[in-house]
């Protein structure tokens, strides 16, 4: 009999605890678990389950919504705004937009205008729906109540997507994107997501303002900070965008690895695989072109090399040129004598034997052969669309910066040197220095986060 009484006491205590449980705390934990399930899906499932992810997330959503049904009534018990916000956030977990999420989140911010989380979630709903204006209004509205990192991060993304026909306005938007992301980082320097958003802002600046290697270095520094946050280890967007940055920094081995990491974290996402395959093909084309002197037949190559004339060095033929108001001495050296890094006070000269096609068209790449029949690839940044050099052109490059690629990937061996040229205006083509019209104007590329 005493055992029966004890069981009843225990049951009564459990019932009492259930009643006293804060429903908002319980719902918050449930919604957070839902997002964790979605974001870390491939940590608990194999890539073979890729086709089931959406269905599995939807099942978790239904289970989460059932918890809201259990707590029904609490939305009118002093926590209505939080209840609406949490339910709206839960419905916002899927890739497709759910109008009920907008309805609930809108109710939440009307009931509690200072509920920052609801403003941010509503803004993310509009951003997912490509309603940039409404999204921006939400994030700006949130910041009027509190300078928080989530709103700042979201604004950094949103201003990059604003449509504008003027290059100057695009550049200002990107700079504003950088500033919002910087402020978010300052509010929490340990938050990897904020660092990742800042990295993408820097990467967008590389394409929009100028293809400046310093901007890529800032980008890579931000990614290094982002990866210190354990939460970012499961973020495929981070590794995809990092791969893009590494590609333009010409750290191709690391770029391929980064794309591969993004593929592993989100197997159904085609973009990382496409970028990996495109880059691999680009590198194979470079290696084969160098190995075969641009596929120019020996007789034709000999004729091209015989056509090299020192007068085609133009302003560099006298052994010096003016830079920043001072004269810089230049010694003409063969390509095989170039050293890694910056070759100060040196100039090289050769014939263009081929172009290397790249899907992104950045950089403009071509193979150069000199009198000793040494072949090297040249990558030119900030080149205006439709501009470049032609097979057979004589090209002079002052103080060349040399990179050595030597690595293996997927049974492909790469071992070649390249010259990186940051601006086309330093090149001399057929005796004439290229003009400012060869310089690229702003070229915006955005890197949208996936759901």
From TrEMBL:
Q: Which residues form the Tetratricopeptide repeat protein 5 OB fold domain?
A: 330-442
SUPFAM superfamilies cross-referenced by the UniProt entry: TPR-like (SSF48452)
Against Pfam families, the record matches this protein to: TPR_8, TTC5_OB
Q: Which domain of life is it from?
A: Eukaryota
Protein's UniProt keywords contain Phosphoprotein: no
Q: Which family does it belong to?
A: Belongs to the APC3/CDC27 family.
Q: What is this protein called?
A: Cell division cycle protein 27 homolog
State the species of origin: Cardiocondyla obscurior
């Amino acid at each position: 009999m005493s055992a029966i009484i004890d069981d009843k006491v225990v049951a009564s205590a459990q019932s009492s605890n259930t009643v006293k449980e804060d429903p908002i705390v319980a719902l918050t934990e449930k919604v957070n678990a839902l997002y964790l399930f979605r974001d870390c899906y491939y940590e608990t499932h194999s890539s073979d389950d890729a086709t089931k992810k959406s269905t599995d997330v939807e099942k978790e959503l239904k289970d989460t919504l059932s918890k809201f049904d259990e707590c029904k009534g609490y939305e009118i018990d002093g926590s209505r705004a939080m209840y609406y916000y949490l339910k709206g956030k839960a419905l916002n977990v899927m890739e497709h937009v759910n109008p009920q999420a907008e309805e609930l989140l809108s109710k939440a911010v009307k009931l509690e205008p200072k509920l920052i989380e609801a403003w941010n979630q509503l803004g993310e709903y509009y951003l997912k729906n490509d309603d940039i204006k409404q999204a921006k209004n939400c994030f700006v509205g949130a910041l009027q109540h509190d300078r928080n990192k989530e709103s700042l991060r979201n604004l950094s993304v949103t201003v990059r997507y604003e449509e504008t026909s003027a290059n100057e306005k695009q550049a200002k938007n990107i700079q504003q994107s950088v500033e919002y992301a910087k402020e978010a980082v300052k509010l929490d320097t340990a938050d990897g997501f904020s660092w990742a958003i800042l990295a993408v802002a820097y990467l967008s600046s590389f394409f929009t303002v100028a293809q400046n290697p310093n901007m890529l270095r800032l980008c890579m520094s931000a990614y290094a900070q982002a990866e210190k946050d354990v939460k970012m280890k499961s973020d495929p967007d981070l590794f995809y965008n990092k791969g893009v940055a590494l590609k333009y920094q010409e750290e191709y081995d690391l770029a391929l690895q980064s794309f591969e990491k993004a593929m592993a974290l989100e197997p159904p996402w085609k973009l990382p695989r496409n970028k990996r395959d495109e880059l691999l093909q680009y590198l194979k084309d470079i290696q084969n072109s160098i190995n075969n002197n641009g596929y120019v037949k020996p007789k034709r190559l000999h004729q091209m090399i015989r056509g090299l004339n020192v007068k085609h060095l133009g302003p560099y033929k006298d052994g010096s040129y003016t830079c920043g108001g001072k004269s810089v001495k230049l010694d003409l050296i063969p390509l095989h004598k170039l050293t890694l890094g910056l070759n100060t006070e040196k100039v090289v000269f050769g014939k263009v034997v081929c172009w290397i096609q790249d899907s992104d068209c950045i950089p403009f790449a071509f193979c150069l052969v000199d009198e000793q029949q040494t072949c090297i690839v040249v990558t030119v940044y900030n080149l205006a669309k439709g501009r470049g050099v032609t097979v057979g052109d004589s090209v002079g490059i002052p103080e060349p910066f040399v990179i050595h690629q030597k690595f293996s990937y997927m049974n492909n061996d790469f071992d070649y040197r390249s010259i990186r040229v940051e601006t086309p205006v330093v090149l001399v083509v057929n005796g004439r220095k290229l003009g400012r019209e060869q310089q690229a104007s702003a070229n915006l590329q955005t890197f949208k986060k996936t759901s």
